[in-house]
Amino acid sequence: METEPAQGVEAQAACFHCGEPCRDDAHRASGHAFCCAGCRTVFELLTENGLDDFYAFGQMSGVKAPDASPAARFHFMDDPAVRRRIIQYTDERLTRVMFRVPAVHCIACVWLLENLFRLRPGIGSTRVNFARKEVSIAFVTGEVQLSEIAALLTSLGYEPDLNLADLDRASARPASRRLWLQMGVAGFAFGNIMLFSVSSYFGLDQFSGPGLKQMFGWISLGLALPVVLYSAADYWKSAWSSARRRCLTIDAPIALGIAAFFLRSAWAVASGEGEGYFDSLTGLVFFLLCGKWFQQKTFDRLAFDRDYKSFFPLSVARRKGAVEERAALSEIEIGDRLALRHGELVPADATLREGAAVIDYSFVTGESDPVEKQAGDYIYAGGRQVGGEIEVQTVKKVSQSYLASLWSQEAFRKETRRTFATLTDRYSRRFTWIILSVACGAGLYWTLRNSSLALPSFTAALIVACPCALALAAPFGLGAGQRLLARRKVFLKDATVIEALAAADTIIFDKTGTLSSPGAASAVFDGGALNEAEARWIFSLARQSMHPHSSRIADALGGKQIPQRVRAFAETPGSGVEGSVANHRLMLGSMAWLEARGVKLPKKRGEPGGAVVGVAVNGEFRGSFVLTNGLRPEVERLLVRLSRRHELALLSGDNERERVRFAALFPAGSDLRFQQTPLDKLNYVKALQAAGRTVVMVGDGLNDAGALKQSDTGVAVMENINAFSPASDVIVEAGALWRLDEAMRLSRATVSIIRMSFLISAAYNVFGLAIAAQGLLAPVVCAILMPLSSVTVVAFACGATTLAAWRIHSRSEAA
Amino acid sequence: MIVLLLLIPLSIVVATVFLMAFIWAVRSGQYEDTSTPAMRPLMDEPGKTNFNESRVTNHKQ
Fold this sequence. Notes:
A: six-stranded antiparallel β-sheet
């Protein structure tokens, strides 16, 4: 047997389940240390049920489990009305439900969730979709309740993420299925027709006579039919609608080319003239669909189009008399009493009934400091309670609250319009007219000289000018750029965003949550260095309070501190805390409060640039903590780099306190505006656009939502990319914000690479046209020219973009 | 060469069977999740290895 490790080593051991450090030795089982009761319970549950293989996948791969049993929180799910909206399918025997579980992060998670049926009889098969972080669970109807499953998942650390928007959303069928089928059909026809065509290129009829060739032609025609009718269907539709709107997109000349290809080939087969161009036709459609697929790659787990509903939880704790129950948000009526705990959201406009309310509005308004509320005060929906439990009474329904009304304003609701004409479309507009005139010219010329060649040369011109390579350049170039950026944690909604980014000349930043981060906040002590004992006293006192200022000070001092006993602790809500530690009387609070309690304060100094918390020891003023919002890493460098090519501006919902600090960060002459409402931000973007600017808005919260939508490219900065984000075109992981500059550079490089690809494909087209206009276009020439041009352009677009990304990346790393 | 008249239609029939199989695979949702199935072969059936033993060897490494 192994001996038990020494106590001192064990105190810093990592939790056997989740890997977080263990604070004490209170939770042990089977010789392993756990950080909390929750993790130990999961361990015991797994070992009892023969699922201990979970730990063989890798050490500490678990998710930190919650301490308390959460069963009561999910009871609202069993309400028939709510239940009906959550479950996907049900009959008398089986029910199937799909939960989104953001905590799924590794193979062990997948394994555990797919073995869920071993933990609870009545649960059937479970399937995990790792990329989407979704778990689909089947269970015996009536034997297991929905709330039990949600509670089981939560107790394992995999809390299902449920919000209002999920309920209202009709389950959409994935569009990619259709594209796969279209590609499959086109690829199938292409491969088979190729077999027949190659034999005729090598002189089939010399051996077998014309009969077999005739048959091959008819088979090819039969195989090409579903390609033209089904696989290319989207091109027909798009060409038709663009013709009706009288604006030519790239799809118009493509559809024209496909039509010319097909009719010409069908005529060739029917008249017994030859085998036609079916191999080139199906190859063309197949390559085009491949390009579409490459470009259409989206990030399943990221949601770019969210509204305020996905910000709200599904249920809240409602009090009726002395009883507390979970109620679905949609059932909340005016006058209901709701209990909100630390970190919970105020779902509807309400008044405070009791408790020390400290409401954090940073996500909604951009104010960095939480606001204290007194009983009877009005609280707007969207704020987050920080600290202890409070009770509020709703004044409006969820759908009529401040947040909801913000969203229903005209400007916010506006559909994302992309008036931005894509590069390809602009290029193809001219292109189409050139092709048509060359084709007509060739037809006319041969009508006069040798009328039997007129129709062949006309159709040959249309065929060879079909902008296949041109249509592939953008999807592959942009798609490659999008993938490369995703590797750097910059996720684009779709590939065309690259074009908008490349065209941008103005970048607007939000402050709180975007440039500054609540996580990087700092509390700096002003008033001489604190000695070790003092730091320990203040830490001990500060950790007693849930107020955000206290916890920030505790965090700043904390770390390896061991708290001491605090006696006679008292908190004056909104002002400060006091208590005695090691026989010293400590006070921690606002300057005004300290003064009122008889502490002599030093003379006023200049603007501190942050919130101030004073410290008094035994009635004597000792100094003060200045709390500032920390900046995200590398923000200074990012702003300097971006300012070389772009105008920068700052729009903050916060007060002017940090103006000086940010003025130093931004280049001289930049527009810095504070106390901006969501509508101000929106109008600012509009005004810039009216002045002809192309605007990128970088923000994080609901207060930026309108501006993000209005701007040409909205960039949402997210701590956790799976969490709620306002609707945007780009999602950047907060730690990777400094890569924004790289993204801008890569976008510009990609666009110029695409321009070069256009030139290459145009060269091929001119070459082909020269042959076609003479009426010489043999099927075999077309069969070589078409794939060759496509492959060159695709290889160039992908290769050059990758090279450019690598160069930009290594240059920015080196600098 | 006359045998080609039999073999070619036959080959097309075989190819069509594969196309049908592909269509079935897409329809049954096999192309929607391409990352999770790759993990499943790596998972053992629960209860086959002795967990405590495997942990001890892990520690010794």
